[in-house]
Write a structure and sequence with these properties.
Strand order of the largest sheet: 9-10-11-12-13-14-15-16-17
Number of strands: 17
Largest sheet: 9 strands, antiparallel
Shape: globular
Radius of gyration: 23 Å
Length: about 325
Amino acid sequence: MKRILGITILALLLSNCKKNENLLSTNKLENVNTETSKDSNKSLGANKEKTSTNEVANWAFYKTSESSISETSTKEKIEIINQFKNLKIEIDDKKLKVGNLCTYEYYKSTKTPIKYFESTKTAQLYESIFAKNGIKLGSEITVYQSLYPEKTCKNPWDEILLIDNTLIIVFDDYLVFFKKGITENQGDCFSNTKITSLPITNTIIDGNNVWNELDCNIANLKTKDYIRLPDINGIKIFIIGNFNFDDFTYTLVTLKNNKVITKKDVGFAKEGDEPNTVSEFTQFDINKDYVFSLNTKTKSGEDFKTLKTEKFKIDDKGVIVIIK
């Protein structure tokens, strides 16, 4: 990994570097053996102390990076998408399975970005790369590798990173992302969410105490802030809030059997030409009959004027029905 990573950084900083087939490949075999010999006993001991639940986490292909990292890719982006779009990764208490390609008993380690990338400068470089693809690097990187190097999967599956609730590999100079899907305890996750009674007004929406932190992954949305509405005929209904200074969105998501039926932005703000200003925004409220009222306003001089209004409701199948 050190040797290949060094090539990667040169390729990023210098335009005429050699091609890099895998930016985040595994360490050399002797390094893996050394680290495994140090930590495998500790890992195995911890596994003995835990009660195995045999819970399986399913990870599905999400997307590829917006561009080739060091512009050395030999494939088109669409080729990579087509190669991975139907692939699933399963991880339980002991084993990691990559579709029908391979399975290995894994060793999981946690490292700081500086330790993994081996320098502050390189860590900062990758932090910016991940940020461009909607991934927050944070303070820890989880690394999945085979507990027994001689039984590992072939590149690019020999080392898989977990960053910001996203599994990441590098293939042909592209980042490939996998998001967690439904797990065996997903229902328990939803059962722990708090329900807010209807009606829901702007005052409630704008209040800090109504928003809760979500542990479940819904519709691959990056944020975890939510308001859960009362169920309709077994349909779970969430408003997911993504708060980013003056640029924010509220997304309505309905689910049946933990699968997304409807996903729609119901509130947002657009940043103005000047910093910390808003040029357009949409507010919404929900009455006791599940009727959503959306009001979009745009900047007109010093004031805002109504641009459009919209009303819809959610039917007993979780589908949006427009009200005229």
